[in-house]
Amino acid sequence: GLEDAPCPVALLSIDAHHHAGWHAALASACDVTFVAQKDYLPAFAAAGAGDAEWLPLWAPDELPPPATTATYPVAFVGRLDPHLNPERVALMATLRARLPLHVAEGPYAPVFTRSRIVLNQTVRGDLNGRVFEAMACGALLVTERTGNGLLDLFADGEELVTYPRDDVDAIVAMVERYLGAEGARAAIAARGRARVRA
Question: Cβ atoms within 10 A of the Cβ of 116, count?
């Protein structure tokens, strides 16, 4: 009955990488549809929502500024459920054996604002909130190279740095490089923070 609602109906599809099958069909009953995962726009068009628009995720404006002294050389904050995210759990365990990696679940800002580098891993190649949150908190983002508009928004090597999915050696080499090059790390992090906040 959404198509008969007495007011405009908007849909914001954040997790199209999980739910495009039913989000796209639902979108055809809405007046306005925004999709956070750019690569899924064709699925929405095929389901009758050809006017769906890409609206990337974001970070809140009220995040605290970066701490003057970093507590964590490298950090990851996110869901670590072995049933829902087995690849992530395995990746983080492997990386913890090779890097000074702080891994946690829960609030991200207290960790990210005190981290030199934040590591990101996606579930299904999605452009997740962690990308925006880590950069807004002032850390250098080392993220999986993915689609969904990541490199439409940010320049690799200028505002963030990317690695091939699950390439442990590439992640370790990149993290070690930037932990040993504070000037370059800080410059990329500052450009990334400015870009996200803009």
Answer: 22
